[in-house]
Specification:
By secondary structure, the chain is an alpha/beta fold. It has helices spanning 3-38, 45-56, 60-70, 94-102, 157-170, 177-190, 246-260, 263-271, 275-285; strands at residues 77-81, 84-85, 115-117, 148-149, 194-196, 199-200, 203-205, 213-223, 233-241. Strands 4, 5, 6, 7, 8 and 9 form a six-stranded mixed sheet that branches. The chain has a three-stranded mixed sheet with strand order 2-1-3. The protein binds zinc ion. Zinc ion binds next to loops. Zinc ion (ZN) is lined by residues 78, 85, 87-88, 90, 109, 111-112, 114.
Length: 291
């Protein structure tokens, strides 16, 4: 075999290992989401089995690294963002950036030792400082009136997700609504994000370079988001989540779902007839649950 075709083969194999690790990490974070919403007694049998199977079928070298990292933290994979580790911010040397891009071997972050990968999903294009220049608190740190959609039109989860993703592109937070939509649908395909109480929480992790952003849309007719929910979702909270704030997202998710499980807040959101009114409903409802 020629040298060139051998290195191409190495890249393909390593890409498979990295994808495997990323899927495993996503499953672990989905399990964390389920615990955050439904409490510690939740039946996680199916997802636990999926995680065990994926761990058992890992490449042996990757499995050793995974098990060592997993003891310390649930985030084992760090997307590269602007030549840095997006988890700890460590700047990578040119040779390391090159290795991550070539993808022929596992490249650990020289500081936090998580496995670095080159993300291919949608990119954050919003102002990085948005939210830090003015003193904001509560939900205003993650959202704004231009991210409120009081009347979603879509009939399916995919259509609604596309409407929400388009709002993020229009508000100039992300570069590509269609990539964002695709990422969110892939996430839904693993486990639907309907959580009951007429709510759904579709999201895309690994959108790096900015902050967590929330778009809130209301579907009067309701849309089926699967998951544990037997009823259609009317209140849809769509987030882009930088990997480093995955743990914080769980608190946001729990806070919002607590707020809108209250009937009065649900009704107020369903009756909101403009983005401004919906924004008031969201800020008022989350006043005590989102710090
Ligand atoms: Zn790092």
């Amino acid at each position: 075999m020629s040298k060139k075709s051998k290195s191409k083969e190495q890249t393909q194999t390593m890409r498979g290992v990295i994808n495997h690790l990323m899927q495993l990490q996503e499953l672990i974070l989905i399990r964390d989401e389920q615990r955050a919403i439904h409490g510690p007694g939740t039946d996680l049998g199916a997802i636990n089995k999926h995680i065990d199977d994926m761990t058992a079928s890992l490449d042996p070298n990757a499995a050793t690294i995974f098990n060592r990292l997993y003891k310390k933290d649930h985030i084992i994979m760090a997307p590269m963002s602007d030549g840095s580790c997006s988890m700890c911010g460590m700047h990578l040397a040119i040779s390391q950036i090159q290795s991550v891009k070539l993808c022929r071997e596992i490249v650990p972050c020289p500081n936090c030792v998580r496995i670095i990968y080159d993300p291919t999903g949608p990119k954050w294009v919003g102002d990085q400082k948005r939210g830090t220049t003015e003193r904001k608190s509560g939900i205003a740190r993650f959202s704004s009136p231009d991210l409120m959609i009081p009347e979603l039109e879509g009939d399916t989860a995919a259509e609604v997700i596309s409407e929400l993703a388009t709002a993020l592109e229009k508000a100039q937070f992300v570069d590509d609504a269609s990539k964002l939509t695709q990422g969110a649908i892939e996430r839904e395909n693993i486990l639907g994000t309907g959580i009951g109480h007429h709510m759904a929480f579709p999201h895309v992790r690994g959108v790096e370079g900015g902050g967590l952003a929330l778009v809130f849309g209301v579907s009067r007719k309701g849309v089926d988001f699967g998951g544990v929910s037997k009823t259609p979702a009317n209140l849809i909270f769509f987030c882009t989540i930088p990997t480093a704030v995955s743990a914080f997202y769980l608190r946001l998710l729990a806070g919002i779902s607590d707020s809108f499980a209250k009937d009065a807040n649900y009704k107020a959101a369903m009756e909101a007839d403009s983005p401004e009114v919906l924004w008031k409903v969201l800020t008022k409802a989350t006043r005590y649950t989102i710090k």
